[in-house]
Design brief:
InterPro entries: NAD(P)-bd_dom_sf (IPR036291), SDR_fam (IPR002347). By secondary structure, this protein is of the alpha/beta class. The chain contains twelve helices and eight strands. It has an eight-stranded mixed sheet with strand order 3-2-1-4-5-6-7-8, with helices on both faces.
Length: about 325
């Protein structure tokens, strides 16, 4: 009996291991791109420096961790008018910005209210925005994260309602109000917030054999479906954003830059309730960074040029 050819066996094992590694990386690229998340976590982002002088910027979710910090940064960069919108009262945020801003000229800060659970509230909010002489940028930061299924007054699961349906509606209603200030030579910017959470949610976004796709996603059960509902709602929003950008670029006389920005993961009042859950805590251990970094990404997106139109900004880079 001939002795085993260890070189050949070793070569075969190496080839098999390489194939498995490549297959695993390809699978993770669609489900959990950990290298992208680690890059984002370890990024050292310089503070945005582009001036907002003369501009009017509107931020929804302005009472949240990302929205409030983005508002402060925009105020420091010389914005003329800053509109803080949330279902909660943003007066405290306004007062902190007025006291802490380093801008030479204090911005005109207005506090507005919008209930993302209500279509009527979205319509009233957009009607108020139509009275603005100019609107240079809208940051649609408002969102919810819920591991327990609940329904909105409109009859939809709350993540689908707030993160997708009402955000999309508000974007469409605000679109005609987006026009640059006289001192702003660039197109106004409409920015949506996206997340890597849509990757692990993608296997749970299959279509039903019949009936409404949105109702299928909304009529979910508690458990894994609800655990991935945030990512599913953001997946829907990303498809909407891409389609909106495509249509806006073809529209006659409507010059608006539409983009998405991923602020990354961070422990905030939105995510804090999940600290005692093993899987969210494990994911955050890999991905979480300081809230300031995420706010920088949003501010950068809000002052982007038309080169970002239809794109996703992962930190300061355009992402496929």
């Amino acid at each position: 009996m001939a002795p085993p050819n260890w070189q050949l066996i070793g070569a075969v094992i190496a080839i098999v291991v390489s194939i498995i590694a490549l297959a695993l990386r390809h699978l993770l690229a669609e489900i959990f791109p950990w290298w992208m998340i680690r890059k984002q976590k370890n990024a050292k982002l310089a503070a945005p420096t582009k001036s907002f002088k003369g501009k009017t910027i509107l931020i929804t979710g302005a009472n949240g961790a990302f929205g409030s910090r983005a508002a402060k940064m925009i105020a420091d960069l010389g914005v003329e008018r800053l509109i803080l919108a949330d279902v909660r009262d943003c007066t405290g945020v306004k007062q902190r910005i007025e006291v802490e801003t380093t801008a030479t000229n204090k911005p005109d800060i207005q506090v507005w209210h919008v209930d993302m659970m209500s279509y009527q509230s979205c319509r009233e909010f957009a009607k108020r925005a139509r009275a603005l002489k100019s609107l240079d940028g809208v940051l649609l930061v408002a969102g919810i994260l819920s591991f327990k299924r609940q329904e909105s007054p409109e009859g939809w699961e709350t993540s689908i309602q707030v993160n997708y349906l009402s955000t999309a509606l508000l974007a469409l209603l605000l679109l005609p109000s987006l026009k640059s200030s006289p001192s702003n030579p660039e197109a106004p910017v409409l920015t949506f917030v996206t997340t890597f959470g849509l990757y692990p949610a993608s296997p749970f976004m299959g279509a039903p054999k019949s009936g409404s796709y949105l109702k299928h996603l909304s009529n979910n059960k508690d458990g894994m479906m609800q655990a991935n509902q945030y990512g599913r709602s953001k997946g829907l929003l990303l498809y909407f954003t891409r389609e909106l950008a495509s249509r806006v670029s073809k529209a006659q006389g409507l010059q608006v830059t539409v983009n998405s920005a991923d602020p990354g993961a961070a422990w905030t009042p939105l995510t804090d309730p999940n600290r005692n859950m093993f899987i969210p805590r494990l994911i955050m251990a890999i991905s979480a960074r300081d809230v300031e970094s995420g706010a920088k990404v949003l501010v950068n997106a809000a002052c982007s040029t038309d080169q970002s139109h239809g794109g996703i900004l992962l930190d300061y880079d355009l992402w496929p």
